[in-house]
Every structure is written in structure tokens, then in C-alpha cells.
Amino acid sequence: MDFYIDTANLDDIREIAHWGILKGATTNPTLLSRETGDYSKILQEICSLVGGPVSAEVLSEEAAGMVSEATQLAGLHENIVIKLPMSSEGLRAAGELKKRDIKTNVTLVFSANQALLAATAGATYVSPFVGRLDDIGHDSSVVLSDIVEIFSVNRISTKVIAASIRHPLHVTQAALLGCDIATIPPAVFKKMLKHPLTDIGIESFKRDWEKAQARAQEAVQN
Ligand code: E4P
User: How many CB atoms lie within 10 A of CB 146?
Assistant: First the structure.
């Protein structure tokens, strides 16, 4: 499973990109609205930092408007992927953009049938939102596993991005279920990295090594 970062914050992207594990990024209007500056430049900078697909979302509600926004966004960088809403107009736009060789990510997917429709329309990626499903008391793992299985059984090449990730368990769940990608907020990446036993282990290895060196030094002096 590939890791994408789910933010538009350049400092956070730089920090996690240094770990060498990022394959792409996803943004949305809410995430971009938290940043200051020229959004086109921010998207271009994200593309150069992650060196892989970067989703940028359209705001139009009509297919024609989506396609025109998509054409502009796609012109910003070769790695831009167009995020389209899961709607009849979004599906039409996905089909039209496929004809133009522009990659798409159908977002706000909450059911297996929505994912199937988006894939059939020609979406390159679908983004089921696990956190928002769990928030309303649904079991996101059932929806995710249905999508992964349907795509596998029907030999559908559309990739599944587990999105709306709230905690490290969502990442483990996405990987276990065979999602192609998990798009993860910076704070969750940091939680994935840490374990108290790792910190304790590093400290005790260091302490033991320093003690051994001090003993060796003493032996040389005596
Ligand atoms: C990513 O593609 C989504 O826009 C994002 O994961 C949504 O996350 P949220 O439900 O935490 O807003």
C-alpha cells in the first residue's frame, strides 16, 4: 500500500517527505483554505515535494465547469490528479477527462456502489472516506473491503485510496484490506512512527553503550 499525505501544508509535507516514504498527496478545498498564498503555487510546490500524484479538487457542480477547472489545474503540473465529487455530474466529468487523458480521483465515496459507478465512469482513483463513515456509526471496514473485493473480482484497475483517516488503526485496516493507497494527515503519520517501547529501547541501548565505554576508558587509565 502506498502512502499519500492528506494536507496542503508545505512545512508538514516537507517534514514527512524527508522520511522517504511518500508517494503522493491529496488536498481538498478545506485543506487549501487553511493555507495562505497562491493556491496554484502551493499545488505546484506540493507536486515537486512529493514527486507523485497530487489531487486537487474542482468546485463546479456542473460537468462542463468541472472539465474546464480540471483543464486549468492539470496545466499546473504533470502530477496533478483532478478530484471530482461523487455525483452524476462528477461521473460525466470523469468520463470526459478520461478521454482527454487527465487522471481523476472521485471523492466523497461512502458506499461500494458509488465506488463501482465512479470506476465504471473512468475514474483513476476512488476515495472512500473511512473516518466520516465511522463518525456516523457505520463500519468503514465493511465498505472498504467490499470495494477492494469488487474491484478485484471484476478486474477493475481503478485504485482505492482510503481517505478521511483519523488514527493509525485506520491505516492498519486499509493495508489489511488491500487498499492501494492510504492518504494520511501529518499528525497520524507522527503517531504511526512512535511507540513508547521504541523510545525506551533507544534510551537504554544508549545508556548501556555509554556505561561500557566509560568502563573501557577506566580500564585503559588503570
Ligand atoms: C482526502 O482525499 C479527503 O479530502 C480527506 O481525507 C477528508 O478527510 P476528513 O474527513 O478528515 O475531512
Answer: 17
